[in-house]
Amino acid sequence: MSDHHRHDEEHDHHHPHGNRPLTEPELRVKALEQVLTEKGLIDTAAVDALIETYETKVGPHNGARVVARAWVDADYKRRLLADGTKAIAELGYSGIQGEDMVVVENTDTVHNVLVCTLCSCYPWPTLGLPPAWYKAAPYRSRVIIDPRGVLKEFGLNLDDDVEVRVWDSTAELRYMVLPQRPPGTEKLTETELAALVTRDAMIGVARLASPKR
Amino acid sequence: MSTTNQAVPPVAEIPRIPTDANQDIVFNFPWEAKAFALVVHLFQAGHYTWAEWTEALSAEIKAAGAEDDGSKYYLLWLAAAEKLVARKALAGAGELRGRKVALEMAQGGPVEPEPGEKKKDKKKHGH
User: Fold this and answer.
1) Domain range spanning residue B30?
2) Threshold 0.95, pTM exceeds
């Protein structure tokens, strides 16, 4: 599966999901990055590591609030699963580039996991910035072929009777996983619940543990 | 894989940077995070001091004056970065502009201001 990614993007179509041209500031940032990289002034891995640092610091607060609301409010959950974009917008978050959000629910029998096989589309208004592994070729190609094996590497062992569904993002559609509410959280407030929700659980590579007491 | 970087400067030392209630930095677009990381990376590599960077950024913020309600923060950040790398002879202003125009042409010409607008195929770009 190595034909996913093309390296000659200058001569090819620009981006596998390339129906959205880069905006003015995106072009300027890309120009800055390219010119500095060509001069050997930039270590791309270090730049990615910095983004990763801030990504984990910033954290997926928005998505966590959406999840917690769905756990405590059955009506909200219904709206969320019916029309993710609209329900997420109710809480004041939106996909600024106009992608539609689809929320997929984990249950005892279904486990959902997200990927973008072509590049690294990611629901960043709700989940923040994508982790480096999400953007890396191994995850993108392997999670489609062997989702259970990949999830195992993340420390998530699913029973054989749990169906795994892999959702591949596109330019128009971004997915987010609604994780299962962990047991032992009946007395927690919505804010406390939101604090339990991790980014990895909303990507679908982790399950949420019960709070330690 | 990660290098032995100087610590990232504390948030409090970055002029007016948008943060959330937890004092965590907030990015509204991926390019903002990239612009942020490029500036911090060049600082960590020793191409300028943090004081030089905050001066450059503050100058942009000051120049924008009342116009800036915070929504343009990373545009100011980017403008400050472009000027500082030129001043430090890391990348010339013309070089950056030329590359930006080349990238723009490669994707079919100047971008329409409306993000929702679908690409129109026969738009004339006289050049």
Assistant:
1) 14-107
2) no
